[in-house]
Amino acid sequence: MKPHDGDSVFAHIPHVPEVPLYAMLVAFSKDPTPLKLNLGIGVYRTEDGKPFLLNVVRRVERLLVNDMSTFKEHLPTTGMAEFNRLSAKLILGADSPAIKENRVTTVQCLSGSGSLRIGAEFLAKHYHHHTVYMSQPTYANHPNFFNAAGLAIKTYRYYDPGTCGLDFQGMLEDLSSAPSGAIVLLQACAHNPTGVDPTLPQWQQIRQLMRSKGLFPFFDSAYQGFVSGNLDEDAQSIRLFVADGGECIIAQSYSKIMGLYGERVGALSIVCKTAEVASCVESQLKLVIRPMYNNPPIHGASIVAAILKDRDMCNEWSIEVKAMSDRLISMRRQLFDALRDKGTPGDWSHIIRHVGMFTFSGLNPKQVAFMNQEYHIYMSSDGRINMAGLGPQTVPHLADAIHAAVTIGV
Amino acid sequence: MNMEYLPMGGSVKMVEETLKLAYGETSEFLKDKRIATVQSLSGTGACRLFADFQKRFRPDSQIYIPVPTWANHHNIWRDAQVPQRTYHYYHPETKGLDFAGLIDDIKNAPSGSFFLLHACAHNPTGVDPSEEQWKDISYQIKGKGHFAFFDMAYQGFASGDPEKDAKAIRIFLEDGHLIGISQSYAKNMGLYGQRVGCLSLLCEDEKQAVAVKSQLQQLARPMYSNPPVHGPLIVSTILGDPDLKNLWLREVKEMADRIIGMRTALRENLEKLGSPLSWEHMTNQIGMFCYSGMTPEQVDRLTNEFHIYLTRNGRISMAGVTTGNVAYLANAIHEVTKSA
User: Fold this and answer.
1) Which residue from A minimizes the CA distance to B45?
2) Residue A314: phi, psi to the nearest 5?
3) Does B3 sit within 8 Å of A259, measured CB to CB?
4) pLDDT for residue A410 is more than 70
5) 20 to 30 Å CA-CA from B192: which of A78, A193, A329, B114?
6) How far is CA A243 from each of CA A150, A238, B85, rounded to the nearest angstrom?
7) Closest Cβ–Cβ partner in B44, B204, B217 for A294
8) DSSP per residue over A27-90, as a string?
9) Backbone dihedral angles phi then psi of residue A135, each to the nearest 5 degrees
10) 3-state secondary structure of A242
11) Which residues pair with A358 in a beta bridge?
C-alpha cells in the first residue's frame, strides 16, 4: 500500500466540542453511584426510569412485521400520503375548514427537527423576510435549523425569572416592535425549556397582534397531548390562528407523543390562503427535500398512519398519551409537596403551574453544580428539569438535593 | 425493541459493518480508526452531507461531475452551493466510456479539484471503466492532487459480488488516496424507503477522523438531529450474523444475475430479429441501467405505440425487464430502430 502524499485536504479541521447536554449524559452513564438522577434528558421515561415503548406501537409493529403485502420501496418525496393527511387532521382538527378547502399542504419530514429545517429552507427561498424571532429562552437546537437555512435570528422576551412565569408584556412589546413580515417561532404547547405556556386568552392577543403586524407564525408542536392529556385541547393555540383564515407553518413531531424518537417521524404543514397556492407550495417543498435526502424514511410513518386511521388504536393511543401526561403532572405534585413538607425556603408553586415535560426550576448554575456533586443529580445548568426523569421513589432524593442547595446558600 | 434516539453519528454497529463492505473486511484503516463515518439518509443524504462539508471546509473548491450522471447529483451540490464543472464520461458513438476525454479532463482540472466518481454500475449509462482504466484514473487523479469522492449505490448489485464491485475503491486505497465514499442500502438490500446509508472519509490518522466526524455530525444536526433507527437495525442484524449475511450475499447475486440475464436475453432477441444495429453495449454495460442509444423520438414511439415507458435519454431500467416481457420489448425496440 502506497503511503499518501501530502496532507489531507481536511487536515485543518478543528474538532467540535460535544454539546454540553450530551457530555452531561455521558457523565451520567459513567457515574457508578446507585442513587443518581438523570433530569437532563429530553425524552419521556416510566417511573422506573426506563424508555417507554407504547403498547399500541408494539401492537402495530407486530402487525406490520406480519403483513407480507408490504414492501420497502421509496416513498414519494412528500412522504406517505395517508400519514400526511392524518397528521394534518391531528393538529388542525378533523373538521378544519382549511383542510376541507384543500388549503393545507403537508409533507412528511424527519421528526420535528427535519420539519423545522425544511420549513426554514422553504422560507429562506420563497418568503420575503429573512428574520426569525424566537422566545428567550427556547429549545437549544432551534437557532441551528434557521441559521443553517441562512435566516437571521432575533429573540422576543418570554420567561420572567421573577415570577417563574410568562413575561407577557415583554413578549407583546417585542413582537410589536418586530418589523412587519418577520417570521415568529412559537411553541404550540409545553414550552421547552421553561414549561411556561400562554393561556388561551393570551394566545388570542398574540394572534391579534401578529396578524395586525403581518408577522408570520411558525409553530413547533412536539408535545401535543402532553399538557392536558387531551390532543385537541393542546392544539388550541394553532387552531386559533388557523381559524382566522390566515397562513402559518407547523412542524409536528411524533418523537415524544408516540414514543417514536429514533424513527424520526414528523410532518411539516403549510396552511395557505388558497388551494392553488397550497399546490404550488407542495411542488416547491419537493425541490427542497430532494437534494437533501430524496424521500423520508417509511417505517415510523407506517406506524403512525396505522394508529391514526384505526379508531380503536387511536383511542388506545390517546389513553396512553393521557397516562404519560398524568404521570408528569403527578411528579410535579409530588415534588412540590415534598419541598413544601421539608419547608424548603422559596416559592415552588411554579413546579405545579408549569406544564409538559419540563420545568425551569429556578435553580442557578452554582446550585445545579452543587446538586450534581453532592447528590449526583444531572440536569442542564439553566435549571431545566425533565419531570419524566422522576419516579415516586426518587422524588425524595431530588427534594433533599434542592433543599440542601437552597439552604446551604450556594 | 427500542426506539430511542440513535447518537448523531448513527448506529455504531451498522456503520462498522458498512465500512467493512467498502474498505475490506480486514482493512487496516478500520483497525487504525482512520475513517470518519456517519450514518446517512441513504446515498442522497451521504452525498448532501459531503457537499455541505466540502462547502464549509473547502469553500474555494468545485466538484467535477460526469456527463451524464444521476440528475439529483446536480441538485445536491447546487443546494450546497458548491460550483460544478463536468467531465467527459459517456461516449455516444461507442456507447462506452470516453476514456481519453475523461483523462484529459482530469489532467486539465486545476490541482486539488474534487471529482465525483461512480464506484460501479454507473447511473444512468451502465458504463464502468475496466480495472486497467481505473488504475489509470487513480494515477492521474493522484498526480493532480485531486480529491476522489465515490458514490457507491450498487455494491453487489453490479457483478453480483460486493468485493468485485468495490474494486475501484480498493485500487484508490491501494494507491494511497484519502477518499470519501457514499454508500447506500437502497438497492442492494432493497431497503429503499428506509433511507439507510453511510458517509465515510478516510483521514490521515485517528485524531483527524475524530475531528472530521464531529464536523459531519455538526452538519447533520440542523438537518434532522439524528438518523432513523429502523433500517440500520435490519442492516446490522443481517451483516452481523454469518448465516444471514450469506443469505444476503446469495440474494444480491440473484438480483444481479437476473439483471444480467435480462441484458443477455434482450440483446439476443434483438439480434434474432435481425436488427441492423449493434447491441453489444447492452451486455457490456453493467448494473440496473442501460443506455440504449435510442433517440428521444424513438423513445416517444415506444411509449405512444407500444406503451413502453422509459426516460427520453434512452435509459432502460433493466429491472423492469422480465422473461414475460423481454420478447415484446425487443420487438418494439426493433420496430422503432430498424430503419435507423
Assistant:
1) A293
2) -65, -40
3) yes
4) no
5) B114
6) 31, 9, 50
7) B44
8) HHHH---SS-EE---SS-B-TTS-B---HHHHHHHHHHHH-TT---PPPPTT--HHHHHHHHHH
9) -65, 150
10) helix
11) A386
Average pLDDT per run of 10 along chain B, which is 340 residues long?
Answer: 86 97 97 98 98 97 97 97 98 95 98 97 96 98 97 96 98 97 96 96 97 97 95 96 97 97 97 96 95 96 97 95 97 92
Which residue type occupies A86? L
- Phi, psi angles (nearest 5°) of residue A220: -110, 115
B252, B188 in Cβ contact below 8 A?
A: yes
B71 touching A, CB under 8 A?
no
Sign for the CA dihedral angle at A121, A124, A128, A131 comes to: positive
Active site residues of B: 70, 151, 187
How many CB atoms are closer than 10 A to CB B60?
6
* Cβ contact, residue pair B195, A51, below 8 Å: no
For an interface test with B, give the residue of A71, A284, A293 to mutate (most B CBs within 10 A): A293
Whether residue B265 contacts residue B283, with contact meaning beta carbons closer than 8 Å, is answered with: no
Residue B102 identity? L
Helix (H), strand (E) at residue A165:
strand A165-166
Within 8 A of A117 by CB-CB distance, chain B residues are 222-224
Cell of B218: 455538526
pTM: 0.94
**Under 8 Å between Cβ of B1 and A60:** no
Which set of grid coordinates corresponds to residue B69? Answer: 450522471
Surface of B (195-254) touching A: CB under 8 A: 195, 201, 203-204, 208, 210-212, 214-215, 217-218, 221-231
